[in-house]
Design brief:
Elements (H helix, E strand, L loop, with lengths): L3 E4 L10 H6 L6 E2 L14 H14 L5 E6 L1 H12 L4 E7 L8 H17 L9 H4 L2 H6 L1 H12 L3 H12 L5 H5 L5 E6 L7 H10 L4 E5 L6 H4 L1 H12 L1
Bound molecules: D-malate (MLT).
Length: 239
């Protein structure tokens, strides 16, 4: 029986997994930490987040785990796989990508980080639900937009800045996938414009045994927009 580690997206927290967790069966334990946890006083680095997660799991007596990461959580999952391959029994990369940022995206992250820090507010990321959620969700389910807006509004500006700088510094980790031979599923919302279907296909091409699940009528936050589809994909790792 292998537990599950769920790694959340930016600028959100563990609550984005609540509905998925409620639908999961068969896992002896599910861990959904808030990132970056205690690391926020250290230099921003996703590698440190991965190392801390590995340390906490090992301290709890866990030496194999299934890992599901959505977007930023996927970047952390890839760092975990690179640095602690023995720990990762199976992988679900959801609405994420294995490549590094293009120069403009990198520069924009640093701008957002500086602005969150300077203003001491999350105003700079407050409009993000407009790009994170798919067009169908935005058009038909305003209550979902309201929940995501509420969660974004409750984030700590210092954590927003930390995460942006950590994501900006991440390298291309596509090669990490080439040697992974455990169960591997790539999930992407058909309406994801942040890490689109092409980014998912790129990861699947790197690991030909990977399964690709395209979730219709969902955007970049499939775990929130279609929790049943994501729970099914995670459950599939067990078999
Ligand atoms: C996320 O959903 O975690 C972010 O959109 C990831 C990113 O900014 O690359």
């Amino acid at each position: 029986m292998i537990p599950l580690l769920l790694l959340h997206a930016f600028p959100l927290d563990h609550r984005m997994w609540d509905e998925v967790e409620a639908l999961l069966t068969g896992f002896p334990a599910v861990f959904a930490p808030d990132l970056p946890g205690d690391l926020r006083r250290q230099e921003p680095a996703l590698e440190a987040v991965a190392d801390a997660a590995a340390e906490q799991l090992r301290a709890a007596g866990i030496d194999r785990v299934l890992v599901g990461g959505l977007s930023m959580g996927g970047y952390v999952a890839l760092a975990l796989l690179e640095r602690h391959p023995d720990l990762v029994a199976g992988l679900a990369l959801i609405d994420t990508k294995s490549t590094a940022d293009a120069p403009e995206a990198h520069a924009n992250r640093l701008r957002v980080a500086d602005e969150a820090e300077r203003s001491g507010s999350v105003d700079v990321v407050r409009p993000m639900s407009g790009v994170l959620l798919g067009e169908t969700t935005r058009a038909l389910r305003p209550e979902v937009t309201a929940v995501v807006d509420g969660w974004i509004g409750e984030q700590d500006p210092a954590v927003v800045a930390w995460c942006q700088r950590a994501m900006a510094a991440r390298p291309d980790r596509t090669d990490v996938l080439r040697t992974f031979d455990g169960p591997f599923v790539v999930v992407v919302g058909a309406e994801d414009t942040v890490t689109p279907v092409a980014a998912a296909e790129h990861m699947v091409q790197a690991a030909p045994h990977a399964r690709l699940v395209v979730v219709p009528r969902a955007g970049h936050l499939t775990a929130i927009e279609d929790p049943a589809a994501v729970a099914a994909a995670l459950g599939g790792l067990l078999s």
